[in-house]
């Protein structure tokens, strides 16, 4: 049975363990085994906090090495881009030659989110945009930073989820990734 | 001569090309060849913007495949974490078994930045913190998300750069990474 690493900021949810369970059950429905990050399941027996953090990172990297594919929750997290931990994981998976899929529960493209949410953005005479630190805004009609759109093996599946509390929990687009993977396998 | 891929949001600076030149010259000083991302050097001959973005991503992935090491500018970008494009690249490099080093021109740890910059953070009875969407704040005394600190081969080099305009340009911590790499090689 193919193993799928379930990357995403889901690990930060108050019901993170249950969210992992829901994702694992959906994986089973399509004949896959879901591997959920170990952020919340490692016992705190470390003298220094940092050692525990690095241990979790190592444990997650090991799960990614074991998997056949990654499905990443790329819903923008605390800003206009996907969670950086998740993004590191899809980069790692790509380098390890795993299949990488992603979904986002935000329907806007990257430029639109930046225009909606950053303060101090200005348009220049050549029509391009810069932020308050005079740094360019990407304008490629993509879902996120071009390295993310370019990194995944299929276009990122978008779903507009309006309910705040459900933004990171909704699994319709996640299930669409599973279907795509099942058709590919 | 060893090749170093120069990852970072430096590509979004108004003087991005010159910043790349400065980094390449510092690489030479230590006997390395610097490879700078091609975001600003690919000719726009594409019918659709998205195709150009994906082409840049592919060209950067190719440069990372060619390099021996990556030095990543992990200075927080438009939020409390490193630029996601940069983070994807260090993940990819790690998966491809390249040496990965990083620096940040922000001296704070990740929890402190989140406490300073996120709105609506609350402390819970068990002393942990949650954000306005009830999602946990990482508290591991690390520089960024644990996957980033866990991903680099040496602890991220921090330098406190106070001048706003210099935050992404200052190269002292970058040069410290070069020295570390030169000693390692």
Automatic annotation (TrEMBL), chains A, B:
PANTHER family the record matches: 2'-DEOXYNUCLEOSIDE 5'-PHOSPHATE N-HYDROLASE 1
Q: Which Gene3D superfamilies match?
A: 3.40.50.450
Source organism, top-level taxon: Bacteria
Q: What is this protein called?
A: Nucleoside 2-deoxyribosyltransferase
What InterPro entries does UniProt report for this protein, alphabetically? Answer: 2'-dNMP_N-hydrolase, Nucleoside_deoxyribTrfase
């Amino acid at each position: 049975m193919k193993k799928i690493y379930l990357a995403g900021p889901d690990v930060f949810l108050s019901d993170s363990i249950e969210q992992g369970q829901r994702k694992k059950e959906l994986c089973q429905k399509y004949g896959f085994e879901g591997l959920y990050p170990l952020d919340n399941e490692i016992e705190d027996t470390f003298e220094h906090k940092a050692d525990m953090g690095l241990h979790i990172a190592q444990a997650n990297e090991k799960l990614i090495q074991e998997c056949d594919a990654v499905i990443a929750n790329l819903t923008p997290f605390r800003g206009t881009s996907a969670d950086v931990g998740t993004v590191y994981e899809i980069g790692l998976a790509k380098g390890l030659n795993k299949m990488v899929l992603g979904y986002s529960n935000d329907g806007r493209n990257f430029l639109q989110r930046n225009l909606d949410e950053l303060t101090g953005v200005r348009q220049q005479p050549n029509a391009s945009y810069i932020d308050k630190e005079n740094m360019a805004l990407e304008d490629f009609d993509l879902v996120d930073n071009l390295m993310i759109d370019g990194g995944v093996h299929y276009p990122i599946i978008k779903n507009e989820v309006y309910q705040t509390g459900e933004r990171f929990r909704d699994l319709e687009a996640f299930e669409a990734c599973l279907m795509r993977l099942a058709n590919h396998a």
